[in-house]
Design brief:
This is Nucleoid-associated protein DCC35_08620. The chain is α+β, with helices and mostly antiparallel strands. The protein is 47% helix and 16% strand. Helix 1 packs antiparallel against helix 2. The longest helix has 31 residues. The protein is rod-shaped.
Length: 111
């Protein structure tokens, strides 16, 4: 027999675990590099830039456009890595909590 109360309890428990896992994403940091490591961007899995490192050899006013391009590339790589890490983290924290229900898209809850 289907126990609606039990199912609702599991959903609330899963929701709580998902919120906890989302909060933990701020503490997971990933790195994106561009220009063979000349520019490094560190972001967390909540897509917040934590730091930017620029190699001293790039700091020349004539190289301004290249520095900007490499910085954007490093941040974009770090953001892509953050997405992957966030998905893996959320999956590991919520695995087995909610049954696989066709049409239920848990990935959308992470955005």
């Amino acid at each position: 027999m289907f126990d609606l109360g039990n199912m609702m309890g599991k959903i609330k428990e899963a929701q709580k675990k998902m919120e906890e896992a989302k909060a933990e994403l701020a503490n997971i940091q990933v790195k994106g590099e561009a220009g063979a490591g000349m520019v490094i961007a560190i972001v967390n899995c909540q897509k917040q830039v934590v730091s930017i490192e620029i190699n001293e050899s790039l700091i020349n006013p004539d190289d301004r456009e290249m520095i900007q391009d490499l910085t954007v590339a490093a941040i974009n790589k770090a953001m892509d890595q953050a997405d992957e890490e966030a998905r893996a983290h959320m999956k590991s924290k919520t695995e087995g909590m909610i049954p696989n229900i066709p049409g239920l898209d848990l990935d959308s809850l992470m955005k």
